[in-house]
Amino acid sequence: QVQLVESGGGLVQAGGALRLSCTASRIIVGIRAMGWYRQAPGKQRELVATITSSGTTNYADSVKGRFTISRDSAKNTVYLQMNSLKPGDTAVYYCRVDQVGGAAYWGQGTQVTVSS
Asked: Residue 112's CB: how many other CB atoms inside 10 A?
């Protein structure tokens, strides 16, 4: 069983920055994509950013230009650099890994709170 462990969340003032990390408990073969999602209270979980095995990235419009997703394949780790944070970015952030063939793994989530 693969476990994804997120870290880096916390409380930050508006305009500040945080860097989230997500590391798999073991090597995952056949990764199709890695990504970050978030869920704010009372809202559905939404995509924040994804990165494919070839390095192609995709971002939600609300974070373009502020967030950057990257990965270290050797460490099975995906990062999310979040700059110019806004109160609207407050949510629980989850990482996800999709394998070729359809299997998907989720992390347990890390809280990000942005104060105004």
From this structure: 22
